[in-house]
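Lab notebook page, bench 4
Experiment: in silico fold of construct C2
Operator: M.H.
Input chain length: 467 residues
Purpose: comparison with the prior construct
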Amino acid sequence: MNDRILVVDDEAGSREGLRRLLEAWGYEAETAGSGEEALDRIEDGRATAVITDLVMPGLSGLDLIRRLKADYPLPIIVLSGQGTIEQAVEAIKLGANDFLEKPVEPAKLKILLEKMDGARELLAENRRLRAELREKGSFGPLRGISEKMKQVFRQIEQVAPSTLSVLVTGESGTGKELVAQTLHELSPRRRNEFVALNCAAIPATLLESEIFGHERGAFTGALQRKIGCFEMANLGTLFLDEIAEMDENLQAKLLRVLQSKHFRRVGGTEVVESDVRVIAATNREPKKAIEEGRLREDLYYRLNVFAIELPPLRDRPEDIPLLARHFAEQAAVHGGAPIPPFDQSAMDAMMMHSWPGNVRELKNAIERATLLSGGSAIMPEHLPPEVAMAGLEQRTIAAAQPRANGNGNGAVDEQAIRVSIGSTIQDAEEGLIRSTLAHTGGNKTRAAKILGISVKTMHNKIKKYGL
């Protein structure tokens, strides 16, 4: 092997024991008794990876990681003895690849070392993705130029190479599964299975079998052995969506498996070992779900080692044009049609809509609009009615506001449109179109331009209201 590993620990017995173990496995190894000494040794450029203790006099493990990541982007494994789990998580956030608790279990250390080649590949991949993010606002399958999404991208990049459990929170449709897929693709486990399971979509009586599998004859209808998600995801990633919808008793079993790394299939006696990274998600506020008895507090803290919160689309409207064009391109390519441009009035309507269904709702709306536009520009009428009406409603309200007539006496402009309380959107729309046509002397093309709609839409509205 060409790997040369630097072991950093202020305890002579610990570092020498690790050095002998590494050399027995075929690695080259050297040691440093402090963070300062480690930096001196790394400057010679021979070390390809670092194993460091967290709690050391002088330059601490966390300080060493900060210095290494700034100048020497090497894979790092952290050893946490006196340090707390919070410090280990902080080390991951700073750039460490993973951590082990002292005393070190050789089998676990060997697995992490075997993944170091993958970690180096990931470093190059992350650099490529960061460049792509700067240029296009994309990070794997995720899209966004808003600061809130850039923060999500940074969190994914920090935690992806580790084995930490991750809890992804956010409203339905924000892209929680895409985050889980990205975490998997940027992890050393990416060559193994990514298995996704929606806990809310499967009856409680069948969910345990889906997760852990069952033996033949375990229950009525169990005609043969079934392999569950934990076995399918061995050495890979298991994504448990809507974890708060899982039965409390099954949550307790899941917690035990996460702690012990083994389980039994339903109706079985054989103990099955499984090395799985679990990523969980919920559209509920976790603390509230705990108070309501939907989520076990101990399971929450086991899963919430690292948390990623996805913002709703309404809180990042600057991402709407980027997402809309991306979805239009996807829909056009899948349908074998030209990629349609967006009329400004359609884009304005999308920017004014609140998107309660978040990115999923936007994707569905764009797929529909791309189909209806037939390759021509996407107009408001191609969008779902509630989206198109958001733009019209905003223009109607703006037009209905009393305006000063400009003579300085505060009098109301007689040309302003007034909408009575209790009027419907259709009433307001009819009044707006009628007044605009009167203003243009019946010129439909000019009226359509003022209202920001197509001439075809204007003709349809005139016919609808009998104007």
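Observations: The CA atoms of residues 105 and 111 lie 10 Å apart. The chain has three domains: 4-114, 139-309, 317-465.
Next step: discuss at group meeting.
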